[in-house]
Amino acid sequence: MTRKRVLSGIQPTADSFHLGNYLGAVQQWVALQEDHDVFFFIADLHALTIETDPALLRKRSLVSAAQLIASGVDPEKSTVFLQSHVAAHNQLGWIMECMAGFGEASRMTQFKDKSQKSGTDRTAVGLFTYPMLQAADILLYQADRVPVGEDQRQHIELTRDLAGRFNSRYGKTFQVPEPHILKSGAKINDLQDPTAKMSKSAESMQGVIEILDSPESNAKKIKSSMTDAGREVRFDQAEKPGVSNLMTIHSALSGSTIAEIEKAFEGKGYGDFKGAVAEIVVEYLRPIRAKALELLEDEAFLIQTLRNGADKARVVAEKTLSDTYKNLGLVER
Ligand code: TYM
Asked: pTM of this prediction?
């Protein structure tokens, strides 16, 4: 039986991935590579939608590659590459822009949120066309499944709509992908504002656990995380968002169920619980951080790995692009 195709991407827009990226996406990628045909890429072109410093973008792209490999994404099993190394992403991106309606694109909540924050004059057109490039990223590889966090659901829905529309107008060209979103872990919240998602663009980093941050700093952030006036360690998203978020993190990293965690902390206070979560997070991240820092010492290896990945990705992407052009009636080269 042929293995199902999986594709996903992550933006290199921060000095480190955060725990939300890890639990919502990367941890799943590592699991899926065992029995799927997997493509994972660093969305460096998407990162250009916000103003970037060239040296920083370069560094963050390599830091992203190091973190993926350190987290267990194995370049022998997974095709790992940079989006900018495969030109077909931009080429199919244009076609997707021509397939999407202006109103449809205007309804994307990530665009609305971000453009509202900075105002339309300071918002790049690329931020508006971002979801169509994302659709191209996915459709080029004929992906069956796209493992992402909850915040990407709307973009995957748009991708499905665009694929279906194209197929019905021009003949079956694209696999219509399914989102692969976990029930738990798909939305990790900020430790200081536990009703908002953990995000690289948070105003304060006090509520964001970064994979590459020091164990001391991460432990401190967890111990001083926002909870509530109660004492009971119980999962209740509405009444106890902070405690519930910490329980989700505990469960995802320790493998204990929520019920087991509730039982283990019966009669104990938040102090004990936070201490235990801090310990689990720090010990889980310690080897990943060490490995990523070690990989960063060998830039040539990282670049070569990404080039090898792009060579493999290009074969698949160019086939889809050429079928797309043909079905659209563009004269063959
Ligand atoms: P990005 O770089 O913002 O995030 C990478 C992945 O991390 C997930 N994520 C979270 N999961 C749980 N809790 C959180 N607090 C949290 N924050 C982020 C995201 O859902 C994502 O899976 N547009 C994408 C990148 C992209 C892409 C693609 C993804 C470009 N092309 C094609 C899939 C397929 C993004 O900005 O992810």
From this structure: 0.97
